[in-house]
Amino acid sequence: MDKSFSDSNLTLVTTPPNFIPKRIVKRKIDTGHGLEMDSFKEELKIMIEEIISNQHNELKKITPTLMDIQQTNKSIENSISFLSSQNEELKKKLEKFEMQAKKDREQIVLLEDKIEELQRNDRKNNFEIKNVPKAREENRHNLINMVLNLSKTIGCNITEGDVHDIYRVKSSKNVINTPIVVEVSSILLKNNFIKMCKSHNVKRKEKLCGKHLGFTTNEDTPIFIGEQLTAKGARLFYLARDLAKSKAYKFCWTSYGKVYIRKQENTPVILIKTEAQVNHLLQCA
Question: Are residues 149 and 209 in the same domain?
């Protein structure tokens, strides 16, 4: 009687029909970091937008300048192109002028050679007597007598009729004893006269001097006889003699107005044509 009664069949206990079980939801823990992150994102967004805006404004300012630079570059390119074309034209003209100048130089050399040949031909019968003291009253007759006295000394028979012309060279440099030019009747006579003068100086101890011309004063003044050379020939002969004095070449002489040198007796004879040739031979010696 003291025991309580229990239901033997629990399945008979029914659940109310409108009962909805509540889901236990865990409560989020708010630490404040989420708000800070959102604020940072917002600030970053604003900053980026400001940067983009500033860049956009700067581009607006730079764009006109860039366009000006581009236009300037185009102008420079056009100028360079124009100058290049002008340079090519000038280059072609320069090449043309150089070719013409080369032809002109060649033509000038040919003309100079022709003039030199004409001058040599005009002097083919002439010889010079150098270092002759000038008399107070010097005339053609006195000059002819000098030549006749000299011809007797060397044993070459020259008559007054053989002397076609004779004169003393005028000088603008106040040189008193200028050469005496003698024109004789033939090349053979001229060459023979010069040859015999050289032979006299080689064979005799007493060299040709003033007394052999008939001078009673300045008797011992040495005199020199040689061909009358052109201005170019005289210059080449002077340089060739210097070449011979350097002992590089043993012989130096003129013949028919031309200058020759020779290193030794058995070596080839060299005709001197230009100053450059003499300088080259001197360097190679």
Answer: yes
The predicted pLDDT at position 42 comes to 84
Q: Residues 223, 240: one domain?
A: no
Q: Which of 228, 249, 275 is the last residue before a domain boundary?
A: 228
Residue 8, in any domain of the structure: no
DSSP string, 260-273: EEESSTTSPEEEE-
What is the predicted pLDDT for the residue at 1?
A: 43
Pairwise CA distance, residues 258 & 124, whole Å: 11
Question: Is there a domain that residue 9 lies in?
Answer: no
pLDDT tens for residues 105-139? Answer: 999 999 999 999 999 999 999 999 999 998 888 89
Domain check: are 171 and 243 in the same one?
A: no
List Cβ neighbours of 152 (8 Å cut-off, separation of 6 or more): none
Q: Is residue 269 one of the residues assigned to a domain? A: yes
Query: Long-range contacts: 32-38, Cβ < 8 Å, 24+?
Result: none
The number of beta carbons lying within 10 Å of the beta carbon of residue 234 is 16
**pLDDT above 50 (res 13):** no
Q: Among candidates 132, 227, 223, 145, which has minimal Cα distance to 189?
A: 227
Q: If you average pLDDT over each of 24-33, 74-83, 90-99, which comes out highest?
A: 90-99
Q: For the segment 236-258, what is each residue's pLDDT rounded down to a tens digit?
A: 999 999 888 887 788 999 999 99
Q: Note whether 271 and 284 are within 8 A (CB).
A: no
Q: What is the 3-state secondary structure (H, E, C) of 98-138?
A: HHHHHHHHHHHHHHHHHHHHHHHHHCCCEEEEECCCCCCCC
